[in-house]
């Protein structure tokens, strides 16, 4: 199911939105480079090892993180593993159906996963328990709970905020009945987030470029592009979707605007404080 064509937009609705864009405004009154209100609730899932709920406007994504221990990847024996998955919850929209993740959920997970892996978000060497043998495996589970456009930026923020709340156990090796085990002993520790990669998404509608597209804007867009920007202002990954094309000038313009906007989103995450003892 392609979200851009899952719901039909009437000619009258489309013409009205294009008329608004020609006047420099949007359906909800925002400017072209203006986000909807962003709300962050870090740590709402008591049974997760880290969690967050993020809303951008009426779009909502919940992220829960659980850990296991296991073997590292053969090509990175001295690094732990962080992997993301996404689910489009059916009650979030009539456009979603129950069943295994479709291509949209897979794409969303990949956008978030690349943002984590291609940045210095977490020092994965700290996730090593025994080099080459045992490491922490972190599973970043994303649940798209309310569908009103732009799940990519919402999920990216939710994963970042959830990782900030993760507490892992200090493990000590002990021998029990002749076998060696790692058991929790001592104070839990945080991941000590080092980077703040955020995803900034633009939709192209005709000749207009807008950030944080709402659902109606997504449905009439020709193309969409998402940039992941790290704390150094570097683009660590790009995802393009839709049948339309971006010119070189449009790519340069959106990349520059993404860097400027990323600074505000990153500062918002840095400034968000929560008493972890109340989780």
What does this structure look like?
The protein has 279 residues and is an alpha+beta fold. It has a single domain (11-278), classed as GHMP Kinase, N-terminal domain (Ribosomal Protein S5, domain 2, 2-Layer Sandwich), CATH 3.30.230. The chain has helices at residues 11-22, 103-117, 151-165, 215-220, 248-271; strands spanning 38-42, 50-56, 59-70, 81-88, 128-130, 134-146, 167-168, 171-176, 179-184, 189-190, 198-205, 208-211, 223-229, 235-241. Strands 1, 2, 3, 4, 5 and 6 form a six-stranded mixed beta sheet that branches. Helix 2 (103-117) crosses helix 3. The relative contact order is 0.18. The model is unreliable at 1-6 and 274-279 (pLDDT under 50).
Number of helices: 5
Query: Per DSSP, what share of the residues sits in E-state strands of 2 or more residues?
Result: 25-35%
> What's the CATH architecture?
2-Layer Sandwich
Global outline:
elongated
Major sheet: size, sense and barrel closure? Answer: 6 strands, mixed
Under CATH at level 1, the class stands as Alpha Beta
In CATH, the topology is named Ribosomal Protein S5, domain 2
Overall number of structural domains: 1
Classification by helices and strands? alpha+beta
Low-confidence stretches: 1-6, 274-279
Mean pLDDT: 89
Distance N to C terminus: 37 Å
């Amino acid at each position: 199911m392609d979200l851009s064509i899952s719901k039909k937009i009437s000619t009258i609705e489309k013409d009205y939105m294009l008329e608004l864009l020609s006047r420099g405004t949007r359906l909800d009154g925002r400017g072209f480079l203006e986000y909807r209100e962003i709300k962050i609730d870090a740590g709402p899932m008591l049974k997760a090892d880290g969690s967050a709920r993020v809303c951008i406007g009426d779009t909502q994504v919940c992220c829960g993180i659980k850990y296991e221990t296991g073997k590292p990847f053969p090509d990175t024996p001295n690094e732990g593993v962080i992997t993301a998955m996404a689910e489009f919850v059916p009650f979030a929209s009539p456009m979603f159906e129950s069943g295994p993740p479709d291509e949209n959920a897979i794409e969303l997970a990949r956008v978030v996963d690349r943002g984590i892996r291609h940045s210095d978000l977490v020092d994965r060497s700290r996730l090593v328990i025994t080099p080459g043998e045992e490491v922490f495996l972190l599973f970043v589970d994303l649940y798209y709970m309310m569908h009103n456009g732009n799940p990519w930026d919402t999920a990216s923020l939710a994963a970042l905020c959830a990782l900030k709340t993760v507490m892992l156990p200090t493990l000590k090796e002990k021998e029990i009945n002749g076998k060696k085990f790692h058991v929790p002993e001592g104070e839990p520790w945080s991941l000590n987030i080092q980077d703040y990669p955020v995803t900034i998404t633009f939709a192209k509608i005709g000749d207009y470029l807008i950030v944080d597209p709402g659902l109606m804007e997504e449905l009439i867009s020709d193309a969409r592009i998402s940039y992941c920007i790290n704390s150094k202002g570097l683009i660590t990954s790009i995802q393009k979707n839709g049948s339309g094309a971006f010119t070189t000038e449009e790519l340069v313009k959106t990349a520059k605007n993404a860097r400027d906007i990323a600074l505000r989103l990153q500062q918002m995450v840095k400034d968000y404080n929560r008493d972890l003892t109340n989780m």
